[in-house]
Amino acid sequence: MNKAELVARVARDTGLTKADVLRVLDGVLDVIGRSLRRGGKVKLVGFGTFQVGRHRPRAGHNPRTHEPMRISARRLPKFSPGKDLKKLVAEARPRPAKPRAARPRPSARRSR
Fold first, then answer.
1. Which has the closest alpha carbon to 52: 67, 38, 62?
2. How do residues 39-66 score in pLDDT, each as one tens digit?
3. What is the rounded distance in angstroms from the CA atom of residue 50 to the CA atom of residue 1?
4. Prediction pTM value
5. How many other CB atoms are there within 10 angstroms of residue 105's CB atom?
6. Are residues 12 and 55 in the same domain?
7. 3-state per-residue secondary structure call for the chain
8. Is the domain of 77 the same as that of 58?
9. CATH no. for residue 70?
10. Where in the sequence is the domain holding 19, given as residue range(s)?
11. I need a labelling partner for 46 at 20 to 30 A (CA). Which of 64, 74, 92, 104 fits?
C-alpha cells in the first residue's frame, strides 16, 4: 500500500475527505520527523516506537579500489513495533501462493 492508497482507505473508513486525511497524515509524518531530528522519541502505545539509532564511525574499504577509508558516524531513524501490532501481524492469515507457470525440466543428458 502506498501513500495515496492509505489516504483513500482512511478517507473511506472515516468519512473524511481525501484532502483532509492527506493534511492530517502529512502533519503526523512532519511532527514525527521533526521530533526525530531533535533526537526525540515518538511512542504510539500498541503500535510502536520511532526513535533515532546511531552508527559509530568505523573502518571500511572502497569496493572498487580496495583502498581503506573511514566511514563516518551517522544517525538513522528506527522503528520498533509494539505488542498489539506484533500480535495483529502474527494472527494474519497468509495469502494463498500464486500458481507458478510450469517450467520444462532440464534433461539429464544434453543432445548435441
1. 38
2. 999 999 999 999 999 999 999 999 999 9
3. 20
4. 0.69
5. 6
6. no
7. CCHHHHHHHHHHHHCCCHHHHHHHHHHHHHHHHHHHHCCCCEEECCCEEEEEEEECCEEEECCCCCCEEEECCEEEEEEEECHHHHHHHHHCCCCCCCCCCCCCCCCCCCCC
8. yes
9. 4.10.520.10
10. 1-38
11. 74
